[in-house]
Amino acid sequence: AAGTPARIGYNGDFWGASISGVAADQGFYAKHGVDADIKVFTNGPIQVQALGANSLEFGYLGPGALWLPATGKAKIIAVNDVGFSDRVIAQAGIKSIAELKGKKVAIAAGTSGDMLL
């Protein structure tokens, strides 16, 4: 018998979020009667769009998406504190934040990194 369908998204590079994929691979969802369709995203804003378009029922999102519950566009069902998971990735030779002065930086708009920058 098929389980209850659930479309679940997560960011592949977000600390701890891959647990959704591992749970599917290990049969956790099926064991509990859930037919999980796991989708991997590259950032939170794209996942937010999928939630808004009803392409997902659940998403594992970073702090950049915390504005959604305040606007009535989402509900928080669990919080995971992954502290210190944001990082700056620099070209070889840059060893400190001070060495970024005068350099160009790139960030995906609407992400937790965008909030920090």
Description:
The chain has 117 residues and is an alpha/beta fold. The chain has a domain at 4-70. It has 5 helices and 3 strands, in the order E-H-H-E-H-E-H-H. It has helices at residues 19-25, 28-31, 44-52, 67-70, 112-116, and strands at 4-11, 34-41, 58-60. A 3-stranded parallel β-sheet has the order 2-1-3, with helices on both faces. The model has no long low-confidence stretch (mean pLDDT 80).
Described by its quaternary structure, the protein is: single chain
Measure the end-to-end span: 49 Å
Structural class: alpha/beta
Provide the helix percentage. Answer: 10-25%
The biggest beta sheet is recorded as: 3 strands, parallel
Strand content: 15-25%
What's the gyration radius in Å?
Answer: 17 Å
Offer a quick outline of the entry.
With 117 residues, the chain is of the alpha/beta class.
Topology, pairings included?
Layout (H helix, E strand, L loop, with lengths): L3 E8 L7 H7 L2 H4 L2 E8 L2 H9 L5 E3 L6 H4 L41 H5 L1
Parallel strand pairs: 1-2, 1-3
List keywords for this structure.
117 residues, alpha/beta
